[in-house]
Design brief:
TIM Barrel; binds alpha-D-glucopyranose; 523 residues; binds calcium ion; Immunoglobulin-like
């Protein structure tokens, strides 16, 4: 591992351009708006900004359905605005990484009409599709095309046909496109569902799920040639640039993650094991909550197994707000937002902050399906209410708890400006955490050990660096908790409760998070 790479020491801020900042009052965030907030982002202290897709798109899946990889969607602005963004970001020392969505395109991409060999086609079985796989946003994963006389694969939807990575010409088109963005000044990529690009040779039926279709998740992730393709991508394009690369790797195992993050492939990997803890048989549509024990086990497994190559996150544009999920939306909103930040930011890996997280934003809540935009939620609502699995009230409750639109509401800039000016705000707390990572290398490179806190609702761990030892303790409950420190610490590095009595009394207030430290040789 090259320990001094800037990629290892960065903190990333994710922007969902549609709802970030709208400069011309058409209701849609845009590049000019984003440029006007670069000072805000810089003030937070991050190094890298990841932009969710801004390419030309029919917006069926909010830009994750691209119809032209080489142009900016006019709802966001022009290529000149984009060049200005790169220049303005770089002049502030901020890097920009783009979303790279190359598992699939939009069905309106010109390739889909002109280059059938760039997509995945199969004959049906009699009148039925080639297998029983379902698309994530509803219906079969296979769509019959009369002119071709075959079915094409769309793992997400029929509007997002999967690209055929077996085709070398297609792959080289993608590499050339990446090269053009990198030459334009882009600093790297977040690679959308990159673990899905290599399809298995045989495509067997999957286990039937509650939507009536077969589950492909046992067959598609980490397919036979995915590592070969990523190594080829490095040789053909990435190796010529100093890039920041992160894999979105649905269905990744620890062993696979080690391969994705080898020097020949990518820098770091997102896994989703902690995000899946409140799911079940009916996918995310349940009242289940993330169990703290499960969270501790999953995070610890990845801390120990993947170390600095972890992409650390509790929020993104596909997840409900973590304060609603594991914190408190009421009187402890700010404190629980800060607690969750402590819990994540002291771990090994690269922290990702999703827009609005630094303000302690909570879920949106939906009272009618007409307020919902996300194709995933809309499909689930109609298919599960029609099949009688859930009532409309139930589905709206689940969508309010788990739906992706919860993270896609506009940033409240009035509140952001207020927090910007308030030293006790969630914003300033994030800023402090980000600064601490810069001044305490043990946060980046120290070892991680989970601390056994028995049945108490605590998540505690130790980071041991060369110069210092850190003890991180987070109370995940609405109750005060008494806990006796296993070893002696006298100094507080950061705490989300200005009235903390923990060092004197051993009492952690509701949602209190405290980080203690001492020089390593002063034990
Ligand atoms: C990724 C994106 C998600 C999108 C999907 C299909 O999971 O994060 O927003 O819907 O891929 O591109
Ligand atoms: Ca706008």
């Amino acid at each position: 591992m090259q320990k001094d790479k800037w990629q290892r020491e960065s903190i990333v801020y994710q922007i969902y351009p549609k709802s970030f900042c709208d400069s011309n009052a058409d209701g849609i965030g845009d590049l000019r708006g984003l440029i006007s907030k670069l000072d805000y982002i810089k003030e937070l202290g991050v190094d890298v900004v990841w932009l969710s897709p801004i390419y030309a798109s029919p917006q069926f899946d909010n830009g994750y359905d691209i119809s032209d990889y080489e142009t900016i969607d006019p709802i966001y602005g022009t290529i000149d605005d984009f060049d200005a963004l790169i220049e303005q970001a770089h002049s502030r020392g901020l890097k920009i990484i783009m979303d790279l969505v190359v598992n699939h395109t939009s069905d309106r991409h010109p390739w889909f009409a002109s280059r059938h060999d760039f997509y995945i086609w199969r004959n049906g079985k009699g009148d039925a599709p080639p297998n029983n796989w379902g698309a994530l946003f509803g219906g079969s994963a296979w769509t019959y095309d009369e002119t071709v006389g075959k079915y094409y694969l769309g793992l997400f939807s029929k509007h997002q046909p999967d690209l055929n990575w077996e085709n070398s010409e297609m792959r080289h088109e993608i590499y050339a496109m990446m090269r053009r963005w990198l030459e334009r000044g882009v600093d790297g990529f977040r690679m959308d569902v990159i673990s899905l690009i290599s399809k298995p040779e045989t495509m067997p039926d999957g286990e039937i799920t509650t939507n009536g279709y077969g589950d492909w998740s046992a067959f598609v992730p980490n397919g036979p040639r995915v590592h070969e393709f990523l190594r080829e991508m490095r040789c053909e394009v990435l190796k010529d640039f100093d890039t920041f690369t992160v894999a979105e790797a649905a269905g990744v195992t620890l062993d696979e993650a080690k391969k994705y993050t080898s020097p020949e492939e990518l820098d770091m990997v997102f896994h989703f094991e902690h995000m899946d803890l409140d799911g079940g048989e009916t996918f995310k549509w349940t009242d289940r909550e993330i169990p703290l024990d499960g969270l501790k086990q999953v995070m610890t497994k990845w801390q120990l197994g993947l170390g600095v190559a972890n992409a650390l996150f509790f929020n993104n544009h596909d997840q409900p707000r973590m304060v609603s999920r594991l914190g408190d939306e009421g009187i402890y909103r700010e404190r629980s937002a800060k607690m969750l930040a402590v819990c994540l930011h002291f771990m090994q890996g690269t922290p990702f902050v999703y827009q609005g997280e630094e303000l302690g934003m909570i879920n949106a809540k939906f009272t009618s399906i007409d307020e919902v935009n996300d194709p995933e939620s809309i499909d689930a609502y109609y298919s599960h209410t029609r099949s009688g699995m859930f009532t409309e009230e139930e589905m709206l409750r689940y969508i309010s708890m788990k739906g992706r639109d919860n993270a896609r509401t506009p940033i409240p800039w009035n509140d952001a400006n207020r927090q910007f000016a308030d030293a006790d705000s969630v914003f300033h707390f994030y800023k402090n955490l980000i600064q601490l990572r810069r001044t305490h290398k043990s946060i980046i490179y120290g070892s991680y050990t989970l601390v056994d806190t028995g049945d108490l609702p605590l998540f505690a761990y130790v980071r041991q660096g060369e110069a210092e030892t850190l003890f991180i303790c987070c109370n995940f409950s609405r109750e005060s908790v008494t806990y006796t420190l296993p070893t002696d610490f006298r100094d507080i590095l950061i705490c989300n409760n200005t009235d903390s009595t923990f060092l004197k009394t051993g009492i952690l207030a509701p949602f209190e998070a405290i980080v203690l430290h001492r020089a390593t040789d002063s034990v």
